[in-house]
Amino acid sequence: xxxxxxxxxxxxxxxxxxxxxxxxxxxxxxxxxxxxxxxxxxxxxxxxxxxxxxxxxxxxxxxxxxxxxxxxxxxxxxxxxxxxxxxxxxxxxxxxxxxxxxxxxxxxxxxxxxxxxxxxxxxxxxxxxxxxxxxxxxxxxxxxxxxxxxxxxxxxxxxxxxxxxxxxxxxxxxxxxxxxxxxxxxxxxxxxxxxxxxxxxxxxxxxxxxxxxxxxxxxxxxxxxxxxxxxxxxxxxxxxxxxxxxxxxxxxxxxxxxxxxxxxxxxxxxxxxxxxxxxxxxxxxxxxxxxxxxxxxxxxxxxxxxxxxxxxxxxxxxxxxxxxxxxxxxxxxxxxxxxxxxxxxxxxxxxxxxxxxxxxxxxxxxxxxxxxxxxxxxxxxxxxxxxxxxxxxxxxxxxxxxxxxxxxxxxxxxxxxxxxxxxxxxxxxxxxxxxxxxxxxxxxxxxxxxxxxxxxxxxxxxxxxxxxxxxxxxxxxxxxxxxxxxxxxxxxxxxxxxxxxxxxxxxxxxxxxxxxxxxxxxxxxxxxxxxxxxxxxxxxxxxxxxxxxxxxxxxxxxxxxxxxxxxxxxxxxxxxxxxxxxxxxxxxxxxxxxxxxxxxxxxxxxxxxxxxxxxxxxxxxxxxxxxxxxxxxxxxxxxxxxxxxxxxxxxxxxxxxxxxxxxxxxxxxxxxxxxxxxxxxxxxxxxxxxxxxxxxxxxxxxxxxxxxxxxxxxxxxxxxxxxxx
Length: 725
Description:
The structure is a single chain. By secondary structure, the chain is an alpha/beta fold. It contains 20 helices and 30 strands. It has four domains: 8-159, 2-Layer Sandwich (VC0802-like), CATH 3.30.2130; 181-222 and 264-399, Vaccinia Virus protein VP39 (Rossmann fold), CATH 3.40.50.150; 410-503, RNA methyltransferase domain (HRMD) like (Transcription Regulator spoIIAA, 2-Layer Sandwich), CATH 3.30.750.80; 528-720, Rossmann fold, CATH 3.40.50. The strands form six sheets. Strands 2-3-1-4-8-7-5-6 form an eight-stranded mixed β-sheet.
């Protein structure tokens, strides 16, 4: 029997922006002492309430049982305090565990190290009491422990939910960029679906994708517990688990489901222009047991007529340029949506969830309410429309009138013409390759020495340092002309334009912020991967565009293998490797800024931090001390570094031979090292070429946008020779 008190403290986590909704939901479930915090809600109640929260919460990500909280005064406190927790009350040596360690501090500045120390404390206590130690299983443990440190305080909890509660168990197929189930519920609640359903209103999603919105809407009104399909929770192997209590709650939920489906007579429909996506949607609806209650049809948006129901809610999550398609290509979609609502949905309520408010304005409707929410880390808005009357035709008229021509200098005109020419040259390749981030111009006209990169709808201009033969006055005048040209060129781009002066960096200055204003941080796609790009704060944006083919090469060879990323920067190569099926990865860099950034990239792509780890370390020292080997290694050192965090000065031309030999010692038999650098006059060390098989693949790593600058980088594939002599 459980010894959990009726006033046990609990913590339910949720996506940012859902805290108030989750607090209300928990109160409805019987929680007391409810208190909101950022992305979480504290509450109190019995074990039954904890179970109910796991089974019935439509909004929570996880339900945690706090065990201990303490201030971290010394690094050793982490081990000692965690060793003092009576773990034997919760699990035995026969069970497996996993540690999720979140947050860094001055004393514990690496989550992998923090996780290791907590694991040591836990297994040492169990071994001392039982003579055996529990195994660690980061992928599918019996018991999951969460440790979070924030502002010097460490909180230790049992995760009784197991994997995130948003995974209901019905979604086996999906289209592009699906929203999570608990976010879908938040949209339904904010749009007023419960009240509309109570009045017999219909629910319709004209761009339903994998069907998450209509499935969650049906489950809400049919009184179906969101967790009823899940076969495994975090408490199932917990020593204090009360199976009889849990079984009674599941039986109650099954009865409520049967009754709810019997009474479900609402008109719930989903449509999509992509028939292939609807195959996934059909399977998801069947998995949820709702195939008799939700209707699907293949129908493009511009074929919509009047709905069969007199009133209801039209709720949809159209693409908004962050993940699917270019923003300019999406304007007609939003305009069609607005026309459909104005023409056919008078008397209905509509809600559009978008990450681009400018696109939302293309509906030509005025929202009566707006709610700020997040889709992952992307700030979004839910625009709620109760009046389908058009504002006016002013927006369309304004968009149809070209902007007044700006008088450009002769130099600015030359640059503008080259930008347009390059854009036309790259367009076919970009669209065929689904590339939205690329180099448009790279000092094509030598007198105007800048690089112009496009990141989705934003333009990023890097000024190269002028030669000593060019006066400061001339350099300023030419840069002003470049700005004229870029401004004229980017008039149709909805993102911001940023200008950065490029200089050789010393020490840690490449890590320092270069702007004091609001950050311009966006998310971009590269194939299956998503990356955070910062266009405002640093000289580098977080994504080296010239390494796009290198990351593709890594992805093609890494499936089922271990991957090591040295001088990892923001770990873009590691993300691509993980998504391509690497069994594990380790990404090493000295910069906390970059490693935190890498962690956010992993989170964006839902990668398991227990399999894909980051480590703050001096790569040169790490290579001297570590013995583990890896199947694929990416070595991309800086051209020159004299960082105060390093014991030595690194010069890639002088030191690359020793660096490659040290790295090859960490390469598994039959493994592959991909070595890259950006030194334009680089020449491979002769001894290295005699020792190893070294193939210069630089020409293969220059996509169409960088082929004008073949010295942008050097890339080598290095493997062991069968015989050395």
